[in-house]
Amino acid sequence: MLGKRLLYLRNKRGLTQEELAKIFCMSRSTYAQYEVDRRKPDYDTLQKIADYFAVSTDFLLGRTGDTAMEKCNFPNLLESEQGYNTQDAHRSDDPMEDLPEEARKALEEFKEFILRKYRKGD
Questions:
Q1: What are the average pLDDT values for consecutive 10-residue runs of the chain, which has 122 residues?
Q2: Which of 25, 46, 70, 72 has the maximum number of C-beta atoms within 10 A of its C-beta?
Q3: pTM of the predicted structure, to 2 decimals
């Protein structure tokens, strides 16, 4: 699974194995072994690879995005690489409305207490 995803990501960026090996400070043969699933990178190397391609380590290891992998649609790529934009979703209700006045007042007092306690410079 890792190998297929590395190959896809490398090709998507138009890079050679040699170029990626230099980026990750390893030999080309080591990187090539990752792409054919003959060798697995250690955690630090896996994290560097994930950071470089802007994907999660779970994605690289095949823990997420299996269905997308079959369609060559990688949901963990940067939005600019996928051709769409995400919109934020926010709650429109206020859970505080369901609380009695006494509870809302107690929460407000607690918030003020925490702000005073952890304010920088105090």
A1: 90 91 93 92 92 89 62 50 52 75 91 87 57
A2: 46
A3: 0.54
